[in-house]
Amino acid sequence: MRADPHDDAAFDIPRPSLSIEGTSARFPVRRIFCVGRNYAEHTREMGGDPARQPPIYFTKALDALAPGGGAIPYPPMTQDLHFEGELVIAIGAEGVAVSEAAAVRLIYGFAAGLDLTRRDMQAEAKAAGAPWDMGKSFTGAAPIGAIVPASALAHGFETRRLETTVNGAVRQSALLGDMIYNPRQIIADLSRYDRLHAGDLIFTGTPAGVGPVGNDDRLTVSIDGVPPLSIRLVKD
């Protein structure tokens, strides 16, 4: 049935939200930003040069969000779906062109996330010099777990480890300190390009070890001090 454009209720679509660890409150999501090329070894594994190619930014649509993980539909139009485990920043205050020192005040909390990528579509777009949005943004492309307050990672941030397992085998393992841009630097730099608002999410990039996954594969992203995220890929 088609929506009636004169019926406001027909377009009253609720905003997606994320659970917050230890409370019944929810974190309403506004936008999804992502950082590419933020780990040197991953940049090299993708054929790039971290010395010449600094981190970049891209976005995902809100309907890419998959709060809490769980069963994720394997997307159409790809034969090469890749996983990328990441730390995600939840923004809790507005800021534009902020300093690194001020950037700390914008961080509400952190979560574990997955940047699922139709790698074959992305590669074809890159080769053609075309945008690669469709390789990165599709239904279920951004699973994310529960948010923990920023204070939970206030001490020893750089020594905390991110691991991604596929069917129980470790495929990614790196320290958060291996990031090229840390969260403060990401926020300060990204806020020069656009005003950040409460409800924004920033996927901070993935370490080396990414690769293809298929039907019924089970993935878990674990980060010290952050609730783990688990998904299972399901083909129709």
Structure overview:
The protein contains 5 helices and 18 strands. With 236 residues, it is mainly β. The protein has a single domain, classed as Alpha-Beta Complex (Fumarylacetoacetate hydrolase, domain 2), CATH 3.90.850.10. The strands form 5 sheets. Strands 4-3-15-8-9-12 form a 6-stranded mixed β-sheet, covered by helices on one side. Strands 6-18-17-13-14 form a 5-stranded mixed β-sheet, with no helix packed on it. A 3-stranded antiparallel β-sheet has the order 10-7-16. A hairpin with a 2-residue loop joins β13 and β14. The radius of gyration is 17 Å and the shape is globular. The protein starts with 16 loop residues before the first strand and ends with a strand.
Compile the SSE list and pairings.
Layout: E1 17-19, E2 26-28, E3 31-36, H1 40-45, E4 56-60, E5 65-67, E6 70-73, E7 81-83, E8 85-91, H2 100-103, E9 107-114, E10 117-118, H3 119-127, H4 133-136, E11 142-144, E12 148-149, E13 161-166, E14 169-175, H5 183-190, E15 200-203, E16 211-212, E17 218-223, E18 226-234
Parallel strand pairs: 3-15, 5-11, 6-18
Antiparallel strand pairs: 1-2, 3-4, 7-10, 7-16, 8-9, 8-15, 9-12, 13-14, 13-17, 17-18
